């Protein structure tokens, strides 16, 4: 098929590449000229595994092109994916849909043939009906169908999730639209992936419900981490043990400093507000308490760092490892790691940030923060080492404890992602602190933490 992808960011660019990999002719439309230029030369504008290779392959073959000119897409494609951003408005609880409405207001009058417009951006309940009105008012030809096809990809797994999704959800209202969706996803459907064909309203609900449930799970284990901290119990052991029951599962049960990123925080905020508007007060109250738990995580991490250091943090040099909102991405949107760096700074600490993929982004976004180009730069002279993002370079490198020991002044490791394997750190004389777990000490483990101070 001839396909366009309008908005080539963290969702749209991998989706465009995936569509080319499925065999379609693809034109990506990206408003940001620098990003568009980079993509056109096969250069990835952000870190995402497997993306650069497939981008170069399909730009090279000519099957995938990028432009800033929407008119080229209007003329070329029989199916248009919308993948522009839907950030929160300043009120912090409703989506700003101006990018979606802007694209539709421009695109629809340019269309000369019947075609399918497929929304992938995340929206709230009732938005498709409002967007349909734009099409009805501006279309100059019949046969323009609007479908909502929410996306479930995770950053860091964007290619894999696009090519092998768990399910495909399509909210639509015509058989022509259903045929178009079956055609564009045919190679995936042929592998047995289920396509859930439903109404636009149900598709909107499915996406909001999925992301908010992920938040519920994360906040549940994080609330248990708080409780474990009160009784010297081990939340990692709790998560492991309860997750063996397949009704609970291990996925999405890693305790830490809370969910961040460009999706979960905004999506649960918008969904809970919308539920309130719709009169679903109990569901709204549930999601509000999930958000409260999440908001408290960063402050809890500062308390743990103070406890681990054994005093106030004013003037204390901290090796701050990690800045992106999770491992596997350079994305800094709503990063709990950056929020923690800010809070430590507000307590007078002196964090020096190192991240394997996000240092350039931090320097651009937050020139006030101090960054190091290499991990050694952050470690040198540190009194405390904080693992703020669970990159395997920090959590699985057995040589890091000795390297850190040679460069740092203190031997205090605080892992606010509960992801580190403690043994190599303990063997190198480090004290290891994690959220909702008893501290581990080199000489006197398994004696309770308080006995070591
Ligand atoms: N990031 C993810 O993993 C993910 C996953 C599922 C759903 N989503 C949803 O997808 C949407 C996009 O998210 P994102 O993370 O890719 O955002 P993003 O900010 O990375 O990308 C959006 C892109 O759209 C471009 N754009 C804006 N207006 C445009 C226009 N008129 N024409 C062409 N391009 C335009 C922007 O320049 C930007 O590059 C959001 O609704 C988000 O909630 C994102
Ligand atoms: O057990 C866990 C899992 C995740 N997180 C945190 O939760 C946030 C989100 O993680 P993840 O869900 O992996 O990242 P995203 O790439 O933002 O993906 C989510 O948001 C996308 C945008 O809507 C959806 O498409 C995906 O299905 C959904 O997982 C990050 O800060 C993680 O560190 C935890 O703290 N514990």
UniProtKB/TrEMBL annotation:
<dbReference type="InterPro" id="IPR014026">
    <property type="entry name" value="UDP-Glc/GDP-Man_DH_dimer"/>
</dbReference>
<dbReference type="InterPro" id="IPR017476">
    <property type="entry name" value="UDP-Glc/GDP-Man"/>
</dbReference>
<comment type="similarity">
    <text>Belongs to the UDP-glucose/GDP-mannose dehydrogenase family.</text>
</comment>
<dbReference type="InterPro" id="IPR036291">
    <property type="entry name" value="NAD(P)-bd_dom_sf"/>
</dbReference>
<feature type="domain" description="UDP-glucose/GDP-mannose dehydrogenase C-terminal">
    <location>
        <begin position="319"/>
        <end position="422"/>
    </location>
</feature>
<comment type="pathway">
    <text>Nucleotide-sugar biosynthesis; UDP-alpha-D-glucuronate biosynthesis; UDP-alpha-D-glucuronate from UDP-alpha-D-glucose: step 1/1.</text>
</comment>
<protein>
    <recommendedName>
        <fullName>UDP-glucose 6-dehydrogenase</fullName>
        <ecNumber>1.1.1.22</ecNumber>
    </recommendedName>
</protein>
<dbReference type="InterPro" id="IPR001732">
    <property type="entry name" value="UDP-Glc/GDP-Man_DH_N"/>
</dbReference>
<dbReference type="Pfam" id="PF03721">
    <property type="entry name" value="UDPG_MGDP_dh_N"/>
</dbReference>
<dbReference type="Pfam" id="PF00984">
    <property type="entry name" value="UDPG_MGDP_dh"/>
</dbReference>
<dbReference type="InterPro" id="IPR014027">
    <property type="entry name" value="UDP-Glc/GDP-Man_DH_C"/>
</dbReference>
<keyword id="KW-0520">NAD</keyword>
<dbReference type="InterPro" id="IPR008927">
    <property type="entry name" value="6-PGluconate_DH-like_C_sf"/>
</dbReference>
<dbReference type="InterPro" id="IPR036220">
    <property type="entry name" value="UDP-Glc/GDP-Man_DH_C_sf"/>
</dbReference>
<dbReference type="Pfam" id="PF03720">
    <property type="entry name" value="UDPG_MGDP_dh_C"/>
</dbReference>
<dbReference type="InterPro" id="IPR028357">
    <property type="entry name" value="UDPglc_DH_bac"/>
</dbReference>
<keyword id="KW-0560">Oxidoreductase</keyword>
